[in-house]
């Protein structure tokens, strides 16, 4: 007998079952920053932007599934956002400076 299984593909709920929806949203936002930073690392020609993106990946990865990080999620998301904005600006400056 084959039963249809309802499998959730949400990695956050998989590792942290039972967390509140508000906390899940904050962690999902952090995951988005981490994914954007990973993409920047892979595609940018700017060493400065890549270094800043790596900081986002390190902060986000360390906290994403860590239950103890729940009280710091707002601050971590703010930091990740600022680092990504700085990385994008550094990339833009580097591209302008080295464009020839």
Notes on the structure:
This protein has 100 residues and is mainly α. The chain is built from four helices and no strands.
Strand content: under 5%
The secondary-structure class comes to mainly alpha
Unreliable parts = none
| Number of domains as seen in the coordinates | 1
Order of helices and strands: HHHH
Total strands: 0
Please give the share of residues in helix.
over 70%
Quick structural overview:
With 100 residues, the chain is mainly alpha-helical. It has helices spanning 11-15, 21-43, 47-64, 73-98. The mean pLDDT is 91.
Q: How do the strands and helices of this protein lay out in sequence?
A:
Elements: H1 11-15, H2 21-43, H3 47-64, H4 73-98
Helix pairs in contact: 2-3, 2-4, 3-4
Which structural traits does this protein have?
100 residues, 72% helix, elongated
């Amino acid at each position: 007998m084959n039963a249809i299984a309802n499998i959730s593909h949400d990695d956050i709920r998989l590792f942290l079952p039972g967390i509140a929806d508000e906390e899940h949203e904050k962690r999902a936002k952090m995951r988005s920053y981490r994914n954007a930073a990973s993409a920047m690392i892979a595609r940018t020609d700017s060493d400065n932007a890549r270094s800043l993106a790596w900081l986002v990946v390190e902060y986000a990865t360390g906290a994403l599934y860590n239950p103890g990080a729940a009280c710091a999620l707002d601050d971590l998301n703010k930091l990740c956002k600022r680092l990504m904005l700085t990385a994008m600006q550094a990339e833009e400056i580097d591209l302008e400076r080295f464009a020839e």
